[in-house]
Amino acid sequence: MNPKHHPGDDLLMSYAAGSLEEPLALVIATHLALCPRCRDEVARLEALGGAMLEHQDGTPLADDGVERILARLDEPEEAAPAAPSGDVVDIDARVPRPLRDYLATGIDQLEWKSFRGLEKVELMTEANGFHTRLMRIKPGTAMPAHTHEGTELTLVLAGGFSDASGHFARGDVAECDASVDHQPIADPGEDCICLAVTDAPLRLTGPVGRLLNPFLDI
Ligand SMILES: [Zn+2]
Q1: Which of 118, 129, 195 is nearest to 156 (CA)?
Q2: Domain total of the chain
Q3: Ligand 1 centre distance from Cα of residue 95 (Å)
Q4: Least confident of 122-126, 154-158, 170-174
């Protein structure tokens, strides 16, 4: 089933412009692997960005960059090539391709650590100002009620959860900021596994003009 909760336009636009910081780009790329609607939207924004660059300096943007990205986005997730033998152990079908590069192993083989009533694995620890984590919540468990200092972007990989803003299942993205006080509850029946990125306060709240700058190369 296709995702119902999508990243905001500002995030898709920044992703298309190549200006998102790596942890956020990872969430978006992983969502795109699961969401035809946002793949189409990013392709449209890429084309728009290319057209704007072409218009700006009169010379066409090198085509092959955009085409490579579009071609990659067109590849269905199911068509992921088999891992080279003996190289990558235990490719996990729950992990879309963009995320695989960041995991040495399948989800169950990761070194999970207990954290406030749930389990987590830190990824990309060198990314300044961001926490990038896989979270695992037992079926039917309520996460601690919390607000956010900055922005939290959460992508569901397996299972699901519900909070005041709705139900989130595989591929869905939840975007929360300091104004959101919520207590997500994991669905019964299956561990809820999420990719969650939190950033420093105000990181995502710049004016729209800032998001357009990468296209304009100011
Ligand atoms: Zn989407």
Answers
A1: 195
A2: 1
A3: 17
A4: 122-126
CA of 7 to the centre of ligand 1 (A): 6
Please tell me the predicted confidence (pLDDT) of residue 174: 93
C-alpha 134/C-alpha 147 separation (Å) is 19
Write down the mean pLDDT value for the chain: 78
Q: How far is the CA of 26 from the centre of ligand 1 (A)?
A: 14
Ligand 1 center to 218 CA (angstroms): 29
Confidence of residue 59 (pLDDT cuts 50, 70, 90): low
41 CA to centre of ligand 1 in angstroms: 9
- Between strands 113-115 and 131-137, the pairing is unpaired
Measured in Å, residue 87 CA sits from the centre of ligand 1 at: 32
Q: Which residue has the higher pLDDT, 36 or 144?
A: 36
Cross-strand bridge partners of residue 217: none
Cα(58) to centroid(ligand 1), Å: 33
Any domain includes 179: yes
Section 178-207 average pLDDT: 74
Spatial contact of 127 and 20, defined as CB atoms under 8 Å apart = no
CA 18 to ligand 1 center in whole angstroms: 17
Dist. CA 154 → ligand 1 center (Å): 13
24 Cα–ligand 1 center, Å: 14
Global pTM?
0.74
The yes-or-no verdict on residue 207 having pLDDT over 50 is no
Sign of the Cα pseudo-torsion (126, 137, 192, 80, in order): positive
CATH number, position 173? 2.60.120.10
Q: What percent of the chain stands above pLDDT 70? A: 67
Domain of residue 1, residue span:
1-82+95-218
